Every structure is written in C-alpha cells, then in structure tokens.
Hints:
By secondary structure, the chain is an alpha+beta fold. Helices cover 35% and strands 20% of the residues. It has helices at residues 5-16, 22-28, 33-45, 78-88, 115-124; strands spanning 65-73, 94-99, 106-112, 132-139. Helix 2 packs across helix 3. It is elongated and about 55 Å long. The two termini are 15 Å apart.
Amino acid sequence: MSLDAIDRRILAALQKSGRMSNAELSDQVNLSPSACHRRVQRLEADGYIRDYVALLDARKMRVPTTVFVEITLQGQTDEVLDAFEKAVARIPDVLECHLMAGAADYILKIVAENTDDFARIHRQHLSRLPGVAQMQSSFALRTVFKTTALPV
C-alpha cells in the first residue's frame, strides 16, 4: 500500500499526539470521523503504525544522564553477534542498540541517574557482555534536539 497525502497528515498528527480522539484527528486532517477511523485502522493493520506509547520525562524518572557506548567485538561470526545481541537486550538501562558500519560494531544508548549509576551499569552489565574486545563511553552534556517523529 502506498501512502497518500491524507495518510501522511494522519501519521504526522498521531506522531505529535497519539492520544487525540478520532474526532480531533478527523478535524485536523479534514476527513469525516468514520473515514478517518477506517484509515487509521488500515495504517495499523499494514504496519505503518506499530504501537502507541507514552514518552516519559527522563529527569522526572531520575535518569537524566545519557551515555553512548561504542562496542567493538572480538569477532563478527553469527554466534558472537547473536550472543551479544541477546545479552544486551536484557539490560534495562539500554534504550537502543545499533549494529554499525565503521570503527565500532555496536553503539548503545544508555540512561543513568549519574556517573556513579553508570559505573554500576558498566560493572554489573556491560563488562559481562559476551565477545566484547573494546568499549568507549561518551556522556551527553546536553540534549540539543530530540524527536521520535519520523519524516512523513
């Protein structure tokens, strides 16, 4: 299925406010409520809309520190990659894990209370990840821009 202009307006609106009612959404995209509802259902069924979530405030949740960790593995066999990915997925403080092209094999986005908390995460979790040859951590000083919205 290809997206038309109305589908794109629906997706853009829902990315900004996923809790708006169908009536509000239909007004915003200039469509009848029933037609809007059918389109949203189709976008969900076709996988364009994966889920609806609440975005939490990291400061209020007491994890304001963001750390990016570059990881280089000892090798890149399927077994090494699979073992690493399964282990890292079990660390609750890791928000994202990306397989990379370039110097590092993976980059992780981790949240922590502070540097002491990150030291705990490193000691209890990161240092025990299988197949790791090298790790480099970089602390974000300030978030300049952050969004979860994809361009539509």
